[in-house]
Specification:
Radius of gyration: 20 Å
Number of strands: 15
Shape: globular
Structural class: alpha+beta
Helix content: 25-40%
Largest sheet: 5 strands, mixed
Strand order of the largest sheet: 3-2-1-4-5
Distance between the termini: 19 Å
Length: about 290
């Protein structure tokens, strides 16, 4: 086995029934990461109760968490408890909130993303009052996620002056306790379509996930397909690099989509620790950290 890089560690969610095994959804990543980096596990379920339970290799220093999304208050608890163990997460709670919550990053990138409006509450009437001021097609989501796989029922509003109440009500009710922040209305963009989702019927567009580490592009891959024929012009790559250079966090993702006019647009930012690899292979992902560090 090659010598491990000790300047960076990784921490994964464990299996809820078998604490010394990785969660099934992160098992491949865990086994890949541990080949070259110190890697350990913790109980997400215990953390929800305010308790830190660590398993496996002892970690110290700078660490990247790879696992399920956390509400900001839970991440703050996580960060504080790990600090007591000599473990420093790659992103501070403030950095996590900046790129995990749309209202916090929107102003810095409003020229490169879809026009958006939001409420500070989860009250239906507040969202409907906001909608009255708008025209056209919109997407409804909260500060973090949409219900895009319930496209027609709880996500897409074809005419915000006609069928808005049903869709927003469904979204709020179905998100329930998982709803973060308030209700966000994002102007629907005409994107280059590549098909429809087999189950939900949701339109699938040409989209990419970009991982940004320490201000540099770590990896880019297709969001929806396993094709590896992504092509960007020099100007587009320069634009992506400029986005990365404006990020004030150590590890984030930015999801891009191509509009029907050919231009790229920012769809979402996210904290890199809780962003899935999509079609990116785990081996390529973890090798990319080594390349940037060399």
């Amino acid at each position: 086995m090659a010598e491990k890089h000790t300047a960076l560690s990784f921490l994964f969610c464990n299996h809820p029934l078998y604490p010394r095994q990785a969660d099934e959804d992160y098992a491949s990543e865990f086994h890949t990461a541990r080949q070259n980096y110190p890697s350990a596990l913790f109980s997400y379920e215990d953390l929800e109760q305010g308790k830190l339970s660590l398993y496996g290799e002892k970690l110290t220093g700078l660490t990247i968490y790879r696992g399920w999304m956390m509400k900001p208050e839970m991440y703050r608890t996580f960060y504080r408890l790990l600090e007591r163990e000599g473990i420093t997460l790659i992103n501070t709670p403030e950095e996590y909130e900046t790129y995990h919550l749309l209202p916090n990053w929107y102003e810095s990138f409003k020229q490169e993303t879809s026009e958006s409006f939001w409420t500070s509450s989860v009250i239906l009437e507040d969202a409907l009052c906001l909608a009255k001021k708008l025209e056209g097609a919109y997407i409804v989501k909260d500060y973090v996620k949409s219900r895009k796989h319930e496209w027609a029922d709880a996500c897409y509003i074809e005419d915000i002056q006609k069928n808005v109440e049903r869709v927003i009500r469904n979204f709020i009710e179905r998100q329930g306790d998982d709803l973060v922040g308030g209700v966000v209305l994002r102007r629907f963009e005409s994107l280059k379509q590549i098909g429809f989702h087999a189950r939900s019927g949701m339109p699938i567009s040409e989209e990419y996930r970009v991982f940004i580490y320490a201000g540099n592009v770590l990896a880019i891959d297709n969001y929806w397909t396993d094709r590896h024929d992504s092509r960007f012009s020099k100007e587009e790559l320069t634009w992506i690099d400029s986005i990365a250079s404006r990020v004030h966090s150590n590890f984030v993702t930015v999801d891009l989509a191509r509009k029907t006019d050919g231009k790229l647009i920012i769809m979402e930012f996210g904290d890199g620790q809780v962003s899935g690899l999509q079609q990116l292979e785990a081996e390529s992902f973890y090798k990319a950290f080594t390349k940037l560090s060399d």
